[in-house]
Design brief:
CATH topology: Rossmann fold
Shape: globular
CATH architecture: 3-Layer(aba) Sandwich
Number of helices: 10
Number of domains: 1
Oligomer: single chain
Bound molecules: adenosine-5'-triphosphate
Distance between the termini: 21 Å
Strand content: 15-25%
Helix content: 25-40%
Largest sheet: 9 strands, mixed
CATH class: Alpha Beta
CATH superfamily: P-loop containing nucleotide triphosphate hydrolases
Radius of gyration: 17 Å
Structural class: alpha/beta
Order of helices and strands: EHEHEEEEHEHEHHEEHEHHH
Length: about 270
């Protein structure tokens, strides 16, 4: 059984692209690792895999071990990452595959990766409710994920996309751990005051409407993007150390506390 050594599985979903789903996946992984957990990150965003870039591991490749693909170990090995990005020859390549090929790739990602023991496996999914989501839902018929973290932005809440995502979860009987509202306000680097540029609070209202938990608001922090862009295969130890100094670290410490509580309560 490929998931037998994995204690908890969490999916990260978003109704639309560009809302910060990959950033939330990365920060969830970093904050869980900061609490001493062994974390795996599975990137099934086949058309736009961004995990190699997020973890500064674009030059790494995955190799085949005796028990399957060996995920890329980041820093001191507290985080392991598997992404289609590691298998593409040219990292700028994108994959245009039809449904059956995507399904086969996802099945392989779910069965052929030698993760070793993990406390948490975080799965970064493509935006929307596409073939990949249906495949992943099918893969998990026996091993149910603990649930999904749904990411939105204040603007996206105004659209039907989040609603669609939450309805999708209901349809495939996916437990929703909660909603994260990303890019919710801007923290001034000079005075640390938070300004609500795009309005905020919509995620909370949506969470109430669907009877799911609101996990928290994540402000826009330009330093986060800089931190990601300037790391060059320095590994997660330094990324983790840098992240601990980031203004978003306390925000995600609270979010991951709730994720842990909810996963352990299951
Ligand atoms: N809270 C934040 N503060 C500052 N920058 C952010 C924040 N969240 C996301 N970003 C930046 O916004 C951009 C888009 O984020 P990200 O790649 O995480 O979105 P996504 O939803 O995964 O996108 P896609 O749908 O293309 O996969 C990135 O450059 C990221 O660094």
């Amino acid at each position: 059984m490929p998931f037998e050594d994995i204690k908890h599985i969490v999916l990260v979903l978003s109704g639309k692209g560009g809302v910060g789903k990959s950033s939330v996946t990365t920060q969830l992984a970093l904050s869980l690792a900061a609490k001493g957990n062994q974390v795996g990150v599975l990137d099934i965003d086949l058309t736009g895999p961004s995990m190699p870039r997020m973890f500064g591991a674009e030059a790494k490749t995955v190799v085949q071990g005796p028990k399957g693909w060996l995920p890329v170990s980041i820093g001191d090995g507290k985080i392991k990452v598997m992404s289609l990005g590691f298998l593409l020859n040219d990292r700028g390549d994108s994959v245009v595959w039809r449904g059956p090929k995507k399904t086969a790739m996802i099945r392989q990602f779910c069965t052929d990766v030698a993760w070793g023991p993990l406390d948490y496996l975080i799965i970064d999914t493509p935006p929307g409710t596409s073939d990949e989501h249906i495949s992943i839902a099918e893969q998990f018929q026996d091993v149910k994920p603990d649930g999904a973290v749904v990411v939105t932005t204040p603007q996206a809440v105004a659209t039907a996309d989040v609603r669609k995502e939450l309805n999708f979860c209901k349809k495939v009987e996916m437990n929703v751990l909660g909603i994260v509202e990303n890019m919710s306000g801007y923290v001034c680097p000079h005075c640390a005051e938070c300004t609500n540029i795009f309005s905020s609070g919509g995620g909370k209202v949506m969470a109430e409407e669907f009877g799911v938990e609101f996990l928290g608001s994540v402000p826009i922090d330009p330093k986060f993007g800089q931190m990601i862009e300037t790391q060059k295969d320095s590994g997660s130890e330094s990324l983790l150390e840098q992240y601990k100094k980031s203004g978003l670290y306390p925000v995600f410490t609270k979010i991951s506390d709730r994720v842990i509580e909810k996963c352990e309560a299951k």
